[in-house]
Design brief:
The protein has 4 helices and no strands. It has helices at 10-30, 34-59, 63-95, 100-104. Helix 1 (10-30) runs antiparallel to helix 2 and helix 2 (34-59) packs antiparallel against helix 3. The longest helix has 33 residues, at 63-95. The chain is elongated.
């Protein structure tokens, strides 16, 4: 199998989506700042979108369904980012830090 025919097989896309998902999960676990966790969450959304588009392109009879799902995921990701950034700004204003370890040590 040569590289010119790689785009005709779903396996390359699925492996790439699995790699991006693994990087996102690793980043979500290892990042200590809230912004890093937010970026890792976006990588997970990107992996899900790539997976849906791959399955849609190669296995689904209707090409519109996967595209609608990806647009829904993009809208969900935009809403998640806006809410998360507003929460991060509020936390920073109160505690002068966005490190998750310092925030988890809050007394409530």
């Amino acid at each position: 199998m040569s590289l010119s025919h790689l785009h005709a097989e779903p396996y390359a896309y699925l492996v790439l989506a699995a790699f991006v998902l693994a990087v996102g999960i690793y980043g979500l676990i290892r990042r200590r700042t809230l912004i890093g966790m937010l970026i890792a969450g976006e990588l997970i959304f990107g992996a899900a979108s790539l997976n849906l588009m791959t399955v849609n392109r190669f296995f689904a009879p209707d090409p519109v369904v996967g595209q609608v799902f990806v647009l829904f995921i993009m809208g969900l990701a935009a809403a998640e980012v806006s809410i998360a950034l507003s929460i991060i700004i509020a936390v920073y204003r109160n505690y002068r830090s966005i490190r998750s370890a310092e925030i988890s040590e809050m007394k409530g």
